[in-house]
Design a protein that fits this description.
The complex is a heterodimer of chains A (66) and B (151).
Chain A: E1 6-9, E2 12-15, E3 20-28, E4 31-40, E5 43-52, E6 57-59
Antiparallel strand pairs in A: 1-2, 3-4, 4-5
Chain B: H1 9-16, E1 36-42, E2 70-71, E3 79-81, E4 84-87, E5 93-111, E6 117-136, E7 148-150
Antiparallel strand pairs in B: 1-2, 1-5, 3-4, 4-7, 5-6
Classes of the chains: A mainly beta (66), B mainly beta (151).
Chain lengths: 66, 151
């Protein structure tokens, strides 16, 4: 049994050391999206996406004059 | 003292608690809160303010994603923050170990207890996920940021 750390991917469990790890940040109005990607060669085998945070919506109540 | 015209803050909060029925309402089974769910939609879909209920049309499909999405953790009651009624799920919305290969950019919150009626649509930029986790972190439950606010 190997003690080599593994990571679950679309190709099954692979040694972490065999993968290229890339992090990205995308700016979306009001928030940011953090992306982690793992590549086996040029093939993307895992991609996590994290929205930080989801942007809320405000409903404005307006009363009429009598 | 002087009187001031306003929509009462308590009313804003009580709307989210289902206290008032200014029109015909539904017979509720009890006093428990409804189950809220979150479904993901393709960037090519058309969900917006006119959406009235959840439908699988335009919803993402993929490994480990179940049609209808996931149940939202709702442990925090709607409340007032200053003059604004606020509600935010009490935990992140997480889709675990999914592969969603076709670009998606929106999540629909809907009420699965009340006939899947739509609540709100949120967008976050076009994404895909590969054998990974998609996480929607919730904003602070405040008048400035909460996921649903009535001001």
């Amino acid at each position: 049994v190997s003690d080599e750390p593994l990571i679950w991917t679309a190709k099954g469990n692979l040694p972490v050391a065999s993968l290229r790890h890339v992090t990205k940040r995308e700016d979306v109005p009001g928030t940011a999206v953090l992306i982690e990607e793992w590549y086996l060669g040029e093939e993307l085998v895992k991609r996590n996406v994290h929205v930080l945070p989801l942007v809320g919506i405000c409903l404005q109540g307006t009363q009429a004059n009598l | 003292m002087a009187n001031t015209q306003a929509i009462c803050n308590s009313f804003k909060d009580e709307l989210m608690h289902g206290i008032h029925a200014l029109g015909t309402t539904v017979v509720r089974a009890g006093t428990t809160k409804d189950t809220i769910k979150a479904a993901l939609f393709l960037a090519s879909a058309t969900i917006n303010k006119s959406t009235t209920a959840y439908s699988s049309t335009g919803e993402v499909t993929g490994t480990n994603y179940t049609a209808g999405g996931v149940t939202v953790t709702n442990a925090t009651e709607p409340t007032l923050d200053s003059d604004t009624a606020v509600w935010t799920p009490s935990a992140s919305i997480v889709y675990t170990t999914v592969t969603l290969a076709t670009a998606f950019d929106a999540v629909l919150l809907y009420n699965s207890t009340q006939g899947d009626k739509a609540i709100a649509v949120y967008t976050f930029g076009s994404q895909t996920v590969t054998a990974g986790t998609f996480t929607l972190t919730m904003p602070a439950n405040t008048a400035a940021a909460a996921l649903i606010r009535i001001a």
